[in-house]
Design a protein that fits this description.
- This protein is of the alpha+beta class.
- Helices cover 19% and strands 33% of the residues.
- It contains ten helices and 41 strands.
- Strands 18-19-20-21-30-27-26-23-24 form a nine-stranded antiparallel sheet.
- Helix 7 runs antiparallel to helix 8.
Length: 702
């Protein structure tokens, strides 16, 4: 959206139909659909040629996405020195022209006697400079040069159209993600920036939702310029070598300052929107009006943390460090609810267990789980009370910190190599285990330990009404060339595990039968991963960690690395992060997705003054497998934009209910261009959704 607008404003030119990502480190299975929804037709990259072990069998092919969408894709075949690697920095020499033809695989995909066209990208691209005169002259000389392929200078969009016309119906299809067997360290390196990215994404998500709600209730135009600038800062920090962690140290000092500026702008929008929602104060002595905000797409009933707050009469609460926890009952999705002293605490009288014990051994327990630790601070038993089964295998130790020697063959900010497991160290026994919270809303054990030279403290917590086991961690990281993982062996047998990706999820093998399997010894995921068998499973959630591996029955999350090139000080110092374990009956479903959103986007408690309206839910969906990911003001000011996706490979009718009567509803593309009108009635619009389909809707209030 920002990029296409930039092209229109600065170049007065239409956006290219080609997604040009030559040097990105792998591509999620959802990308073909996102391309098509943005009006793009073709995809070009070179990076998959850098695979360590397996060459993708095609260079020109149709890439089929998670939902079935196909886009015509081309990889550069220009040799770059590695076994399979291609380059977008050709020098235009005869050797590289001939090498491009020799390396190109689908030579027989064209018409008889006429091979398909292929692309040679030339110039000094990585670092700038562009083509030189010598390159251009060389390529012109090779338009009809003996013993070489015929070369013609042209445009990339013309190349793709010719490829589609001459060979499109004979090209093969690749159905799956484009995983890069390389640069696996970039899922973890520079962890502060990765967590700041995650937190910024959710802060902007919340600010956009609240600005949209304020507009729908009051007509207030809150923070449009601030939001746009904040998104520009976030996208800048997602540049190729910033977010992956492969830049020099000063880049990260700048990036963290930009995240700070982003947080200030987004918080300003959030607070201004909530003030507009609360309305003006009628009297100077009006008591504070406390608003509860549930920003994601799911109803929830987890306790709300009120920083610096006070317990209210008639409401179940618990004093904790920095404020209080409140039992606020169940809150609807995308809602703002006033909290008053006169409102009875929903469920406050229900019998519920939430305790921590130190003797005879450290343990936590609520109505869902019983967790037992040994004297060393390891979890040795995790019992699911509702399912009546052990979660861990016999003699299993969960939440085990594992440190590995991490010395890859290539520059170490980028890579983790398959032999990293050759040398491993475990944490020392706990220096202290103590009860720091003991209900009624949350029970917490604090464990202090050391691994190698790094001290860490974990607060392991269970909350009322939840089977989610949280691990809030603070670590003083002092290692060099060490990879830190946390491991959870579980009593689950499955040949595949599920990993969340952007706008969907993907299954990957838990075995290493083939070279394609064991090349995935470290893989990326977004907010959650899951290992499930037919009747039971376990999800592992995170608040800003991306590297994972699930081998056999062991789920592991990569927490920290400590490379020295190109930043000698990478990741040294204090880190804070939280991950959570979620045992569940059946296979994973919306419970896992909702818990991951709840971990990353906690309830907001906002004290202000004014005449607070009743509970308002801006939008909701009637199918739990459909996630409303985004609610925002339309860029052109015409109504609200909703972006939603199907998450569990199901299809069928879906009804969206808005918190206001509808004048019109449209299906749009990702750039918010209207495609087709949708029938709407009163507050509702009903449409059909396909497996893993991403939909963008425009809702116009009456």
């Amino acid at each position: 959206l920002l990029g296409s607008d930039f092209f229109r404003r600065h170049f007065d030119a239409p956006v290219s139909p080609v997604l040009w990502l030559p040097d990105t480190f792998g591509y999620p299975w959802s990308l073909p659909q996102l391309l098509r929804e943005a009006g793009l037709e073709y995809f070009y990259t070179t990076k998959l040629g850098w695979n360590q072990y397996n060459r993708l069998p095609y260079d020109s092919f149709w890439w089929q996405g998670l939902d079935g969408t196909r886009v015509l894709t081309h990889f550069s075949a220009t040799p770059y020195g590695g076994a399979y690697s291609g380059t977008y920095n050709s020098d235009g020499s005869p050797a590289q022209v001939l090498g491009t033809w020799r390396e190109f695989q689908p030579k027989d995909a064209g018409t008889p006697g006429s091979p398909p066209p292929l692309l040679l990208v030339y110039g000094y691209g990585d670092g700038g400079g562009g083509p030189t005169r010598a390159m251009v002259e060389n390529l012109r000389e090779m338009e009809a040069f003996p013993a070489l392929p015929r070369v013609r200078l042209g445009r990339v969009d013309d190349f793709f159209r010719r490829l589609e016309e001459t060979a499109g119906d004979r090209l093969p299809t690749w159905n799956g993600e484009l995983y890069l067997e390389n640069h696996r360290g970039t899922y973890t390196t520079q962890a502060r920036v990765k967590r700041a990215n995650r937190r910024s994404e959710f802060l902007l998500h919340d600010a956009e939702f609240l600005a949209a709600l304020a507009w729908s209730l009051t007509g207030a135009d809150v923070g449009r310029d601030d939001l746009r600038h904040a998104w520009e800062l976030l996208c800048l920090n997602q540049f190729h070598d910033i977010l992956p962690g492969s830049s020099i140290g000063p880049v990260y000092a700048d990036a963290l300052r930009r995240y700070g500026a982003l947080r200030d702008r987004a918080a300003r929008v959030r607070d201004a929107a909530l003030a507009a929602i609360a309305g003006p104060s009628e009297r100077p002595d009006d008591s504070p009006s406390v608003l509860l905000v549930n920003p994601p797409s799911f109803p929830r009933r987890d306790p709300a943390f009120w920083p610096g707050g006070a317990c209210l009469p008639g409401r179940l609460c618990q004093r904790v460090a920095g404020g209080i926890l409140l039992d606020v009952g169940e809150l609807p999705p995308y809602s703002v609810t006033p909290l008053t002293a006169a409102t009875a605490s929903a469920g406050a009288t229900e019998p519920s267990l939430c305790v921590a014990r130190r003797e005879p051994f450290p343990s936590l327990e609520n109505d869902f789980l019983r967790v037992e630790l040994n004297a060393a601070g390891d979890i040795t038993r995790l019992y699911d009370k509702r399912a009546g089964r052990e979660v861990l295998p016999a003699d299993g130790v969960a939440n085990q910190f594992q440190a590995f020697e991490d010395r890859p063959l290539n520059p170490d900010a980028w890579d983790v190599d398959i032999f990293f497991e050759d040398k491993m160290w475990l944490a020392d026994p706990a220096g202290a285990v103590r009860v720091v919270e003991n209900g009624p809303l949350r029970a917490t054990l604090e464990v202090t330990r050391r691994i190698l030279h790094s001290d860490y403290t974990q607060r392991i917590s269970l909350t009322r009404h939840s089977p989610r086991l949280d691990f809030e961690t603070v670590i003083q990281w002092r290692e060099r060339h060490v990879l830190l993982k946390v491991a959870f062996p579980v009593d689950v047998l499955a040949p595949t595990a599920t990993y969340e990706i952007q706008w969907g999820n993907v299954e990957r093998p838990t075995h290493r039968n083939t070279a394609w399997d064991w090349a995935r010894f470290e893989v990326p995921a977004q907010k959650w991963v899951d290992l499930s068998e037919g009747g039971y499973g376990v999800s592992l959630l995170n608040d800003g960690r991306y590297g994972h591996d699930i081998h056999g029955n062991v789920i592991r999350l990569s927490l920290l690395r400590s490379p020295t090139n190109p930043d000698p000080q990478a990741d040294l110092g204090e880190h804070r992060f939280t991950y959570s374990l979620l045992p569940h009956t059946g296979r994973w479903d919306e419970r896992t997705i909702a818990a991951a959103y709840a971990l990353n986007d906690p309830l907001i408690v906002w004290p202000g003054r004014g005449v607070v309206r009743g509970m308002v839910s801006l939008v909701a969906v009637d199918r739990p497998h459909v996630v409303i990911e985004t609610v925002k003001r339309a860029e052109d000011g015409r109504g609200l934009i909703l972006r939603l996706y199907e998450s569990q490979r199901r299809r069928g009718p879906v009804t969206i209910t808005a918190g206001f009567p509808l004048a019109a509803a449209w299906r749009c593309d990702l750039l918010e261009r209207d495609r087709e009108p949708l029938p709407c009635e009163d507050h509702r619009v009903t449409l059909f959704i396909n497996p893993y389909q991403i939909l963008t809707l425009r809702l116009t209030p009456l």
